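Please check this.
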Amino acid sequence: MLPGLITFIETAQENRINIRRLMSSSARLQMIRSLTLLVLLPVESCLRSNPLLGGGLLWGVGFTSYTAIIGHLGADAAASNSVAAVIRDLICCACNGIGTAAGIMVGNELGAGNLEKGKALGIKLKNISWVVGFASTALVLALTPLVVRMVILTPEAQQYLTGMMIIMGIYMIGRCVNTVTINGVLDGGGDTIFDMYSLAVSMWGIAIPLALLGAFVWHWPVLAVYACTCLDEVGKISWVMLRFRKYKWVKDLTR
């Protein structure tokens, strides 16, 4: 009986040592994983957020440049552009709201691991953005006669305003689609860098240079210069749709 008891005690001691080793190994692995995440998460956060900051700066400074360019074309051009900008910003509230909601909804599904559901939701929201875009176009065109009659402008400024509203009606399609698709769906899936370089190309590489040349070098008519300032949103729709259909945004960013 004594040898059996000694064997039992020795076996128990060996098992306790093995358990300690396993616990120590597991603790070390957990510590290594925690330290790795502690280092990687800030780096990844910067990689995801810095393009958003860059895109916001490019967009904000670009829109200010548009206003400055139109302002150099005369008082009538500046006045009509100011009225058109107010109408544009009011109507854009709808697509801005849908874009924000799209980012939350898509990001929530992708973060939960429901990649197919998040993908389907992104496609649905993108399709909704087209409907909202065409509805915004119709609304702008319908409001044009009323707005022109309501504001006090010179006859020349009224002509400018009428033309700007028509151009803006076409612009609203691109604005709505791009806002929901880029700022909502793509950003919700972590594809944040596309917004920055699409603005760098379409706004700073095409629209602003054309508007500057048209206003100060080629001396284009006011409405032609204004159309240049609206070119960035309309011109990149096909590029945005191509990026969307690559589905690089369909991924889980959580750890």
Observations:
- Residues 49 and 254 are 15 Å apart (CA to CA).
- The longest helix spans residues 2-71.
